[in-house]
Design a protein that fits this description.
Oligomer: single chain
Structural class: alpha/beta
CATH architecture of the largest domain: Alpha-Beta Complex
Strand order of the largest sheet: 1-2-3-5-7-10
CATH topology of the largest domain: 2-enoyl-CoA Hydratase, Chain A, domain 1
Largest sheet: 6 strands, mixed
Radius of gyration: 22 Å
Distance between the termini: 87 Å
Shape: globular
Number of domains: 3
CATH class of the largest domain: Alpha Beta
């Protein structure tokens, strides 16, 4: 039998073209970590010379909300992983154990982009390119959901091919509650992935849901526990784990508990410790399974399976970009400012009833109207 190693050495070219857009040393910008981790077979042994690329959003103090510089870095990182001949799969995750990503950086939105649609339009070009970089990566992309996946984080996560989550993670959208619409991918991906009715509920009502519900709906392929109590892993104690019916006749399997049961679950989480080792093991299992396939057949398979999401995304991303830019003159300008200036005591949402009352009588969007809607603005009335 021919010796594969000998064949590789005999046929290896002296040099290879570099298909990166920029030099490797310049690829990653502030807030993005890029790491090549050794790829492993299913038995745990290392496959020499092969790697999984880990791309990490590194802004844990702001729940890994992406800044403009982080979006640039993510684009370059996915490009780098895509053209790296030695990369088997890409793992996209966030730093820490509280959040994968909660979307765009509302401080940056409120303090720079609000009232500047021409600037936000350029930012949205970058955001669109980040989502497209995930959807067109030549390697399978696994979203390692280490915590909250909300807003733009949910959109970037759904652009990935696989999602593996720890079961304390929350999922959902925030758009209409904070002055935007989930048109950075969710209105494209959700109807395809979970159906029109559940998509409507998620993208409009903006109620977060559990990893257990995400698994039931089909936007997560696997969930594992992350909470340890007395040294033992337990399922999320804030979630109804059995298939049961509540007092309204609703099936509540996977839904958050309510009242005292929810408070007791939160207390248990605070008393325990968060351990993401099972999450990492689950991610490695997916990577190992991908390693055991023909690479070009795998690339073609994911390209075909991405088409429903990609087709919807490409149809809508440009007009969505234009609308989001113009929206920075009124509702986004108001909502992002409220979130940025609000506190735990005042809340982070505007007075929606006052806004609707003002618009019902034809009031224009003035700075005075916006000021009157801010959290706590009516406390001195």
């Amino acid at each position: 039998m021919p010796d594969t190693d000998a064949i590789i050495q005999a046929t290896k070219p002296d040099s290879l073209f570099d298909h990166n857009l920029v030099a490797e040393a310049e690829t990653i910008l502030s807030g993005i970590l890029y790491e090549r981790r050794p790829a492993k077979r299913a038995d745990g042994s290392v496959a020499d010379g092969l790697f999984n690329a880990w791309i990490t959003l590194d802004n844990p103090q702001q729940f890994n909300a992406y800044t403009t510089e982080m979006v640039k870095g993510a684009i370059l990182a996915f490009r780098r992983a895509s053209v790296d001949r030695a990369v088997n799969a890409v793992v996209f995750t966030g730093a820490g154990d509280r959040a994968f990503c909660t979307g765009g950086n509302t401080k940056e939105y409120a303090e720079y982009y609000s009232g500047n649609p021409q600037e936000y339009r350029q930012y949205m070009r970058l955001f669109n390119d980040m989502v497209s970089a995930i959807l067109t990566c030549d390697k399978p992309v696994i979203c390692r959901v280490n915590g909250m996946r909300i807003g733009g984080g949910q959109e970037a996560g759904m652009a990935c091919d696989f999602s593996v989550a720890q079961d304390l993670a929350n999922f959902g959208q925030a758009g209409p509650k904070h002055g935007s619409a989930a048109i950075g991918g969710s209105t494209d991906f959700l109807p395809v992935m979970i159906g029109c009715e559940q998509a409507m509920i998620s993208a409009t009502l903006c109620e977060p849901f559990s990893a257990h519900k995400a698994y039931r709906l089909g936007i997560v392929g696997e969930i594992v526990p992350a909470l340890k109590v007395n040294g033992e892993f337990i399922a999320n104690p804030c979630v109804v784990s059995d298939r049961m019916v509540d007092e309204y006749g609703r099936i509540v399997h996977g839904e958050f508990k309510t009242g005292e049961d929810f408070k007791a679950g939160r207390a248990m989480i605070k008393e325990g410790e968060i351990d993401l080792s099972l999450l990492d093991e689950a991610v490695e299992r997916v990577c190992a399974k991908l390693l055991g396939t023909f690479p070009e057949c795998m690339t073609k398979s994911i390209e075909e399976l991405r088409k429903p999401k990609l087709d919807a995304w490409n149809r809508n991303k440009e007009n969505s970009r234009a609308w989001l830019a113009l929206n920075m003159m009124n509702e986004a300008r108001t909502g992002f400012r409220a979130f940025n200036e609000g506190t735990r005591e005042t809340g982070r949402e505007i007075d929606f009833v006052k806004l609707r009352q003002a618009l019902a009588v034809g009031a224009p969007w003035t700075p005075e109207l916006i000021d009157s809607l801010m959290p706590g603005a009516g406390d001195n009335d």
